[in-house]
Amino acid sequence: MTDLRLRTDRLALRRLTPADLPAVTALCGDPEVMRYIDDGRPVPPSRVADELLPALLREYAELPEGLGCWALEADGRFLGWAALRPPASVGLEGTDGLELGYRLLPAARGRGYATEAAAALVRAAFEELGAERVAATTMAVNTASRRVLERAGLRLVRTFFADWPDPLPGSEHGDVVYALTRAERAAATP
Fold first, then answer.
1. Which of 49, 119, 128, 182 has its CA 20 to 30 A from that of 69?
2. 80 near 72, Cβ under 8 Å?
3. What is the C-alpha to C-alpha distance for residues 153 and 160, in angstroms, rounded to an integer?
4. The pTM is what?
5. What is the pLDDT of residue 2?
6. Which residue range(s) make up the domain with 125?
7. How many domains does the chain divide into?
């Protein structure tokens, strides 16, 4: 077992550690990062320290090897995280395969890091972990995230409308599911 999950041309994806608390707090406390996630509000530092980071760290022991949430680093700088997990998001409940997710600090956006990490995890899901399907969800209005999913090889599967307790601006347009199956990937790979 190693702390490094994988390396791309520019990124290292590694296990989160307790020492990442300030970086994870900054990531989840940023209103721009959280705009389309959960209730759209920054996560308070105490909740990151007491609940979120400990839950992410537990995943390494509880999930099969290769799954979990991975810190994204470029030149030793924390840029955000990317994750592969069993499907749990609204819209994916009860589906098979793995769920892809990511969060990037605003300063790291627009440089292809999210796409690079997402594509690497999609590849790993199929080639290393034997997944039959990789899926992700985002708000329909989150065009940047939708582009990342498309560039990582996932395709729009459906739009759905959930009854959110505290709807975010744009939720009236619904949420979208993107996915890629092993068979679709094989057919698209020369």
1. 182
2. yes
3. 21
4. 0.93
5. 56
6. 4-188
7. 1
